[in-house]
What does this fold into?
Amino acid sequence: MLALFLRDIRLNIRAGGGALTGVIFFLAVIATIPFGVGPDLKLLARIGPAILWIGALLSCLLGLDRLFQADREDGSLDLLVLGNDRHMLAVTVLVKCLAHWAGSVLPLVIAAPLLGLFMNMEPLGIGATALTLLVGTPAITFIGAAGAAVAVALPRGGLLISVLVLPLTIPVLIFGVSASYGATANPDPFLQPFLILAALTLFLGVLGPVSAALALRHGTD
It folds into this structure.
């Protein structure tokens, strides 16, 4: 499993620019906001957590179509599906999700504090937003795995994955932004949505890979 994890990280970094593409897109989203909002620094700071979360969410969707694509092209996906029982296949999908997150999404989390400064956010708000992104973005990857498994056989499944995944990520977005805003008031409003966000990630860490494994197995029948 460790070899699979490291292999997928290398593939995520190499394929199509990998993490760099996501970070550049993230930067482009954040950089366009001041032009639409205007030079009001207080307003930028107030909406900063929501903008960072939306930018990270959209950036996460970019590489989801590559989650199983390399395995499908070299034939190893069929071996994974046919050679494992459903439990081992779900574990394999979980490892691939974690590798995808580490290779493509974690750089977005690392870049978020710098982009928070661009939005004139306070240090506490930047730290809280980065923490919620660190905890919440794996949930987006787990949801995306199910969508990627459904669309893996399609030649241009990227748009379909976005259409399938985006509505399902709304709860993650709501609690991530709520926790980020709550941290600027006092610890109580931060803690409750943050714990719900963490619980969502843990729940989807089971449901997402299991659903993706079922979709992959039925897709090869």
Remarks:
- The mean pLDDT is 85.
- Residues 2-219 form one domain.
- The radius of gyration is 18 Å.
- The chain has ten helices and no strands.
